[in-house]
Design brief:
Layout: H1 5-16, H2 19-30, E1 45-48, E2 59-62, E3 81-85, E4 90-97, E5 100-108, H3 112-126, E6 136-140, H4 146-163, E7 167-170, H5 172-187, E8 197-205, E9 208-215, E10 227-230, H6 234-237, E11 243-247, H7 253-256, E12 263-266, H8 271-280
Parallel strand pairs: 3-6, 6-7, 8-11, 11-12
Antiparallel strand pairs: 1-2, 3-4, 4-5, 8-9, 9-10
Length: about 300
Amino acid sequence: MGVSFGGELLAFAELLDLDSVWDLATSLGFSSWRRRRTGWNSDKTGRLANSANNFNASLVIPRASYTLRMDDSHPIPGRPLLAVDTSSPIVSLSLSLGSTVLVERTLKQKQSSRALLPTIDEMLRGQSLELKDLGGLVGLSGPGSFTGLRVGLATLMGLHQATTLPARTLSTLRVLAFCAVENLASQEAPSSPSQPMIVAVVDALRGNVYVQAFRGDPQTEALDEPRCLPAAELPANYPEANVVVAFGTDPAPGRLGWPDTTLWVGAPPLASPAARLAQDLSTPWDASTLAFPLYLRAPAVSLPKAFK
């Protein structure tokens, strides 16, 4: 029987009086849920039941599972990882066991706030899994869609706090670079440099891009800090780039001024590559990173006239 993770998130909000988690749950499409407490039973478990719609959200969770886990940890061996990317133009989710992708789903960006939790539920049920059967949670920390980042990371934080599963984030730019490394390895091109300079690019809109350079090794070593630049300035800032990897930008290096020899790699949905990279990295997992999305710039908002 699949896990009713939505009830888990709401039970966590109710029992610990975390209004922010409750607000998250209702903002993700659960506004029709009827918030109520049904009490404690003899083994100190709490139940929150949904009777407002057909989404099965009944769940019994041990009270002890609400211990916040922010210390260094690693994924639980032999269990699948749940990876979520909600900041890219195509939202993606995956369940992976080692190098094997058990199930992968993609969503449109505009659907993510309402469809994210039901999609996770459907994926787990399809594999006869519950949240407690997972080995860890992986989220992409951006840069990318501001709203998408908040939805995905807040959701994973709620699930982590309710289950104490190990969790971590990876930057979207680093996962893009990892996709390029995998692409080059699969091509086995003898003319490709052994450790190329890979420039990862994410569309920042209005003619700008988020960018970071990496050395093309399995650990995707960063060569500089992520930043936001006008797209036209990329070739001048990275004249030694061998590979450009992008997701949601114009795949034509020549139009930006790069030489024709520059290899352009189009990235796939990022959830599955993120899970593979998270398993390969030797660095400890740290769930506290879920609270720190990588924005790189201020939101594009206009102040009301009274405040100008």
